[in-house]
């Protein structure tokens, strides 16, 4: 898969932009603040329906405008597809494929990309919400139908929390208890599927993560991903924080099995299903949930601990190690997608990455990505990027494409 042309209207600092892109490596060069990252942010949005920089879509609409349009022409398997999304300040966003309207959440079915940017350091050092979002975005790229499962879970969770809040402090009546039981079953059905899918994804990421880390760092620091489930009580602990200089005791062991059904059994560490563990957790937490008015167990409260050299990367890893871990995690994601996809490689996007690396790691990273069908790289300084990646260079100045 590759992008042959990117068109923007009123997106960030671009009133209009037309950017032809080639197979192989495309290098976008410009001083900070000129708009190079805005180009790759737009493409990232088409595959994840989110920005790697901001949480609010409206921030991507040019000042004073009511809407922004991202339009990309894609080529894969001999097909030519035009994808488009309109971001609106008021009302819902709208999407089209080949000029026919589709649900916005279905856009990832048509375009796959993996973005690594400086903000991804927060995957290692930040709070659990960023790690959950990373896993869920990758799940949707691998299996777009899960977008609906995740959206339905969030809807049910919101409804359940509303019921809990209404009952807080006033005492729950019998009819409210029966209503809560109904929401519990729906929450368990959807949430268990998300938990199992995440567990399988964590298992699949293990080997390519280790391979990517060795390729970039040229050392084996034993990177691991340890899932932690709130349905087993993980939410009660400060998971992943340094504790007496020792390896934490995860409430869920790394998943070693080869099938999703078996992994969910192992994940619950008691021989029962994920759904059984989820129901038991909700029953045990009901009093606390009624007191606090929120749902205290489920995939919305889970986490994954990133381990390096047998210790949590958060709190122990250096800046360079954390950066290399986050980069390797994205490279591992791209490797999984290229293995699974019938439409070819995902478009690999590296936003301002090479400035953080020494010459040796720049060379190794270049070797690791050179065979992807299409790679987009941004850089403030041309000399930061290995010469092997500079054959097609686009220069950006003040929201416009200029001659080099």
Automatic annotation (TrEMBL):
<comment type="function">
    <text>The RecF protein is involved in DNA metabolism; it is required for DNA replication and normal SOS inducibility. RecF binds preferentially to single-stranded, linear DNA. It also seems to bind ATP.</text>
</comment>
<dbReference type="Pfam" id="PF02463">
    <property type="entry name" value="SMC_N"/>
</dbReference>
<dbReference type="InterPro" id="IPR003395">
    <property type="entry name" value="RecF/RecN/SMC_N"/>
</dbReference>
<dbReference type="GO" id="GO:0003697">
    <property type="term" value="F:single-stranded DNA binding"/>
</dbReference>
<dbReference type="GO" id="GO:0009432">
    <property type="term" value="P:SOS response"/>
</dbReference>
<dbReference type="GO" id="GO:0006260">
    <property type="term" value="P:DNA replication"/>
</dbReference>
<keyword id="KW-0742">SOS response</keyword>
<keyword id="KW-0227">DNA damage</keyword>
<feature type="region of interest" description="Disordered">
    <location>
        <begin position="241"/>
        <end position="273"/>
    </location>
</feature>
<keyword id="KW-0067">ATP-binding</keyword>
<dbReference type="GO" id="GO:0006302">
    <property type="term" value="P:double-strand break repair"/>
</dbReference>
<keyword id="KW-0238">DNA-binding</keyword>
<feature type="domain" description="RecF/RecN/SMC N-terminal">
    <location>
        <begin position="3"/>
        <end position="379"/>
    </location>
</feature>
<dbReference type="InterPro" id="IPR042174">
    <property type="entry name" value="RecF_2"/>
</dbReference>
<keyword id="KW-0234">DNA repair</keyword>
<dbReference type="InterPro" id="IPR018078">
    <property type="entry name" value="DNA-binding_RecF_CS"/>
</dbReference>
<feature type="compositionally biased region" description="Low complexity">
    <location>
        <begin position="257"/>
        <end position="268"/>
    </location>
</feature>
<keyword id="KW-0963">Cytoplasm</keyword>
<keyword id="KW-0547">Nucleotide-binding</keyword>
<comment type="similarity">
    <text>Belongs to the RecF family.</text>
</comment>
<dbReference type="GO" id="GO:0005524">
    <property type="term" value="F:ATP binding"/>
</dbReference>
<feature type="binding site">
    <location>
        <begin position="30"/>
        <end position="37"/>
    </location>
    <ligand>
        <name>ATP</name>
    </ligand>
</feature>
<dbReference type="GO" id="GO:0005737">
    <property type="term" value="C:cytoplasm"/>
</dbReference>
<keyword id="KW-0235">DNA replication</keyword>
<dbReference type="InterPro" id="IPR027417">
    <property type="entry name" value="P-loop_NTPase"/>
</dbReference>
<dbReference type="InterPro" id="IPR001238">
    <property type="entry name" value="DNA-binding_RecF"/>
</dbReference>
<dbReference type="GO" id="GO:0000731">
    <property type="term" value="P:DNA synthesis involved in DNA repair"/>
</dbReference>
<protein>
    <recommendedName>
        <fullName>DNA replication and repair protein RecF</fullName>
    </recommendedName>
</protein>
């Amino acid at each position: 898969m590759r992008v042959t042309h990117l068109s923007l209207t009123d997106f960030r600092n671009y009133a209009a932009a037309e950017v032809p892109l080639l197979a192989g490596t495309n290098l976008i060069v410009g001083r900070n603040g000129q708009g190079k990252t805005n180009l790759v942010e737009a493409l990232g949005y088409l595959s994840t329906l989110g920005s790697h920089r901001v949480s609010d879509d409206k921030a991507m609409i040019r000042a004073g405008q009511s809407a922004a349009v991202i339009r990309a022409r894609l080529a894969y398997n001999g097909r030519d597809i035009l994808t488009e999304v309109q971001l609106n300040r008021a009302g819902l966003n709208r999407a089209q494929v080949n000029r026919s309207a589709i649900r916005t959440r279905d856009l990832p079915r048509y375009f796959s990309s993996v973005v690594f940017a400086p903000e991804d350091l927060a995957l290692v050092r930040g709070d659990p919400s960023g790690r959950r979002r990373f896993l869920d975005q990758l799940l949707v790229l691998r299996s777009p139908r899960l977008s609906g499962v995740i959206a339905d879970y969030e809807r049910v969770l919101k409804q359940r929390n509303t019921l809990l809040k209404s009952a807080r402090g006033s005492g729950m009546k019998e009819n409210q208890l029966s209503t809560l039981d109904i929401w519990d079953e729906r929450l368990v059905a959807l949430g268990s599927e998300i938990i199992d899918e995440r567990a399988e994804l964590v298992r699949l990421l293990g080997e390519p993560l280790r391979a990517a880390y060795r390729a970039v760092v040229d050392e084996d620091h034993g990177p691991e991903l340890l899932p932690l489930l709130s349905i087993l009580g993980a939410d009660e602990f400060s998971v992943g924080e340094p504790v007496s200089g020792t390896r934490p005791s995860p409430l869920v062991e790394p998943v070693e099995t080869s099938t999703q059904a078996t992994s969910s059994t192992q994940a619950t560490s008691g021989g029962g299903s994920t759904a059984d563990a989820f129901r038991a957790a909700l029953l045990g937490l009901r009093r606390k949930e009624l007191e606090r008015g929120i749902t205290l167990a489920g995939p919305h409260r889970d986490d994954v601990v990133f381990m390096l050299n047998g210790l949590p990367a958060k709190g122990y890893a250096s800046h360079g190690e954390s950066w290399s871990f986050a980069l390797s995690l994205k490279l591992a994601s791209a490797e999984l997608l290229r293995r699974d996809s019938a439409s070819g490689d995902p478009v690999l996007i590296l936003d301002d990455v090479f400035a953080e690396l020494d010459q040796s790691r720049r060379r190794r990273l270049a070797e690791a990505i050179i065979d992807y069908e299409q790679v987009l790289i941004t850089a403030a300084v041309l000399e930061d990027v290995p010469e092997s990646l500079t054959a097609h260079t686009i220069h950006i100045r003040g929201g416009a494409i200029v001659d080099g």
